[in-house]
Amino acid sequence: MRLEEYWGVGPKTRETLVEELGRERAIRAIESGDVRALADAGLARGRATRILRRATGGDGMETLATSDARSAYKELLDLAVEHAVTQRAADRIRVLTPLVSRAAMERRLEDVLAARDAWRDLPEDDRESVLSAYDRYDERDGSELAAVEAAIALLEAGVDSGPFAAIADLERDRLEAAAEALAALEGNRGRVAGGADGELDRLRDALGAVEDMDANALELIEQLRSGGVRDVDQFREAFEDHLLGETNVTIDRVRDAMATDATDATDFVGATLRTLRSDLTAAIDEREETVAAELEAALEESRETVDRAVEAVDEIALHLSLARFALAYDCTRPTFVDGDEAAVSVIEARNLSLSTRDAEDVQPITYALGDHDVTDVPGGLEPGSEDEDGPGVPGRERVAVLTGANSGGKTTLLETLCQVVLLATMGLPVPAERAEVTPVDSLVFHRRHASFNAGVLESTLRSVVPPLSSDGRTLMLVDEFEAITEPGSAADLLHGLVTLTVDRDALGVFVTHLADDLEPLPPEARVDGIFAEGLNPDLELLVDYQPRFDTVGRSTPEFIVSRLVANATDRGERVGFETLAEAVGNEVVQRTLADARWNE
């Protein structure tokens, strides 16, 4: 395959990859999703990631039909990367894409959930041991030695189920022998590390001592003379004793190195030390070659175990990282709904973006579209109840129009549904007590954009309509479509989008303030509402974020005006806000303020 056939690889990128990696290695790096290899070759990490997403999951990336869907996808990856145990695992998370095969989704879910359960059950000390091993793995750029040490740490921690099973049957003795050999050989460019062989260490120490003597030969001669030597024989004997005492060299090696034709003491000492240096260097090379051969042989005996450890540790790092992400957000297994049925339903779902901000009192949400299994809503109604104050039980409609107060959580609900569907289709657990998801071929997520011109309208329609017009199942999550054109036209266009969504058997939630202008909706669509309930003693808006099904949500201008009246310090401003209070209903405003004071 030609490199240019991969998405994002043009002539300049191809030239860079071939020059740095070679064609075959570059192709292997792309096919295996190796971000680091491409980045080391000179590509920006972000560009390398985009190329690999398309190369390894191009069909899945086509699911993300809008720029907002792609942004939500990247936001989820960023959250997951925060829990990566290695840089390599972080890179692999960044190239995860939505999957197109239900079987692939289930396989990844099984691995991640098994890793989650195994990690959750580990004692804290064992977790720290494993994480420390992976820290060393990262510091050594994923070397074989670091991988083997990480495998040993995992075995010591006793994790042997799910994806950890890959290391459960590795022989501990072989791993330890391999770690010893690798520690002696790895990263030393053909040299044997210190501590691997006692004789080699002795010879190296001796050579170092001789080199120090040679560098200070004149001082050594003066030292020997000051010891009271009177003739050549005594000087020779004193020099020999000094060498034996300071270098740990054998007497035979010392005597063989002694110069026999020196003209004076300086020549004698210098020639002897040069000969001794040469002899020791040759002995070191010979011994090092022998020890290296023995270590290579020992390593070869464990080669299969090492290769399996390297592969397993890298794969475990990915699943362990995703498991830590799932635990951090209390994620659970979604149920997939296939066939003619279609559903997106969540019980007690939480928005991950809110969770990362440590938001207090985040209210979980229950919501459902299509052929769901949601039969109860926390604090809601029993089926068939006529009480209109509760959220009720969601019907089986596949399309909903969501209405309600500003700051009522409508956009957050869309984001939450988008997150749940994206995580499920990537084969990952979701932030909900329970969730049912129909994998979709196109995810149309459209956030509210406060740009009011024909160009924005046209580009928006070009992004949201084609997925509905093509084959495959589509999920529409559209927020305040009316923000990009005038209200009258917006109502007509939005009614058309809802109708098209129904006609194409798609799933969809449309957030709008124009519900009354959309009547009559197709019978297959319903209207849901979110309600504000008043002000708290701090004059902050109190909102029940749980949608009430088959109920139009009402706006809350009286609550906002009440707060403005209460907070006005300038008399003129207060008079102005009181005029607005008359417009929205002064009695309601006063009652709201009284309720807020009463609750104080």
UniProtKB/TrEMBL annotation:
A GO MF label: mismatched DNA binding
| Family matches, as InterPro entries | DNA_mismatch_repair_MutS_C, MutS, P-loop_NTPase
Recite the UniProt keywords alphabetically: ATP-binding, DNA-binding, Nucleotide-binding
**A Pfam family this protein belongs to?**
MutS_V
Q: What is this protein called?
A: DNA mismatch repair protein
Q: Known PANTHER family for this protein? A: DNA MISMATCH REPAIR PROTEIN MUTS FAMILY MEMBER, DNA-BINDING PROTEIN MUTS2
For the biological process aspect of GO, one term held by this record is: mismatch repair
SMART domains linked to this entry: MUTSac
Which lineage ranks, top first, belong to the organism behind this chain? Archaea, Methanobacteriati, Methanobacteriota, Stenosarchaea group, Halobacteria
Q: Where is the DNA mismatch repair proteins mutS family domain?
A: 397-573
Region described as Disordered: spans on this chain: 372-393
Q: Which organism is it from?
A: Natrialba swarupiae
User: Taxonomically, which superkingdom?
Assistant: Archaea
